[in-house]
């Protein structure tokens, strides 16, 4: 049994020592970091469109950054749940259309 475990760990070790595997892991980690930072930028831009206050965009992006590359998907999901339902432009358009309808009556 011990021989089988030694052969198995040796096979796994030889696969992980392959330079191609190292390169693939490095590219994968780099890709995840780029997606993580892009998600933080998206949260910042999205919150800027949804509020006129200065602090919330930074808080949204900071929450995604602080969630780390491991939990940023959870942070983005939570952000999507708690973000304002409409953008500032949509809210303004809705108010103006309601005002126009009220003035016609």
In short:
The chain is mostly helical and 105 residues long. Helix content is 87%, strand content 0%. The protein has one domain (2-104).
Account of the 3D structure:
The chain has 105 residues and is mainly alpha-helical. The protein has one domain. It is 87% helix and 0% strand. It is built from five helices and no strands. α2 runs antiparallel to α3. The N and C termini lie far apart (87 Å). The mean pLDDT is 93.
Secondary-structure map with pairings?
Blueprint: H1 2-16, H2 19-50, H3 55-66, H4 68-82, H5 88-104
Helix pairs in contact: 2-3, 2-4, 3-4
The count of DSSP E runs of length 2 or more, i.e. the number of strands, is 0
What is the helix fraction of residues, given as a range? over 70%
Q: What is the H/E string?
A: HHHHH
User: In total, how many domains does the architecture comprise?
Assistant: 1
- Main sheet specs: none
Radius of gyration: 24 Å
Poorly predicted spans: none
Task: Report the end-to-end length measured between terminal Cα atoms.
Answer: 87 Å
Strand content: under 5%
Number of helices, where a helix is a run of at least 4 consecutive DSSP H or I residues:
5
Looking at the structure, what is the overall shape? rod-shaped
What is the averaged pLDDT score? 93
Structural class: mainly alpha
Question: Any key phrases for this structure?
Answer:
single chain; 105 residues; mainly alpha; 5 helices; 0% strand; rod-shaped
